[in-house]
Predict the 3D structure of the following.
Amino acid sequence: MDTHQLTRELQVKNKSKIIMLVADGLGGLPMEPGGKTELETARTPNLDKLAEQGVQGASIPVAPGLAPGSGPGHLGLFGYDPLKYVIGRGALEATGIGFALQPDDVAIRCNFCTLDSQGLIIDRRAGRISSEESAQLVVKLRDIKIPGVEIFVEPVKEHRFVVVLRAKGLGANVRDTDPQITGAAPLDPHADDVASQRTAEVAKEFLAQARKILAGQPKANFHTMRGFAAKPNLPSYREVYGLRAAAIAVYPMYKGLARLVGMEIVGKSQTLDQQIETLGQAWNDFDFFFMHFKYTDSTGEDGNFAGKVQRIEELDAAIPRIVAMKPDVFIVTGDHSTPAFLKSHSWHPVPTLLVSNCCRPDGSTQFNESTSIRGGLGHFEAKYLMMLALSNAGRLGKYGA
């Protein structure tokens, strides 16, 4: 029996409120041996105060040693086994902007990038160009035509956009074209099965036409393709947990993932302040709130240690306004670690803090990597976090006689 079958059977209805605050890429590493991580360096009096009241641990996003993408990382937090429920990034991005995927669709998350005169990538995100500039380039890419395939090209945010290919018989098992490093050429799309061969060929032709259209652009003179994905099918939060769930996020991909598990996207927040305002406005209409904070991840990916520290402190300063809502369960965690030292997602367990009126405080007075490793929750798989949330909220009944 899987955990969703258990939660279906053991659901208890009450009026409790749960908040899961996800600081994307929260976990970090020291920049030198013996140093402090970003979270240990940051001044976090409000998180530390919560640490005294709660219990913490180190969550493993997918499995020991695996560095997850944001999709698997969030699926685990939401209680969906990321090794069982595999969702490509393209589907997340498309759903996040409200694109209704059809059964014959393959969605692809794309990044504008910058190539040098030799065709090598010198910036994988085209200098994080503005959403306005990116949208103008997306319009140009809509001129691409490929016989027998309907093509949709939609802007997302900053350097990100989505391509959806629609035709009968398109498989989604195609490898990314992003080499994940600078100084290398973009890869060709490569199919991993026969059913996806045509998709790879269509993608290759799209890239060839895009290269001509974007030639001469000062920054975004090409793009990569990632996360080829068909439309997924997941059970909803209301079905498996009995929760009316809301998502308060800025970036479309996270809205997309939330929408795929049956959360309602509330508000049109663009800042953390606006997200908290939306939380207050929606408070009476939902049982569970997923709040997403992106910038601890983007600063880590940029290798900006000081910037990530600053973003953690920004988040900490907002904690009192969230606590003032008086949630019955308040969770602070991340979907994965993104150490500035590595400039990428990593496999390291993520500091996770849970506060409720029936948790068992573990005596911690701070919240960071060092304290979470020794915390009362121990090392646990992220897919069990929702069960802990439900139990602490009085929403999970006894198992067995």
About this structure: The chain has 14 helices and 13 strands. The chain has two domains: 3-7+16-84+235-392, 92-229. The longest strand covers residues 105-115. The domain at 3-7+16-84+235-392 is CATH 3.40.720.10 (Alkaline Phosphatase, subunit A).
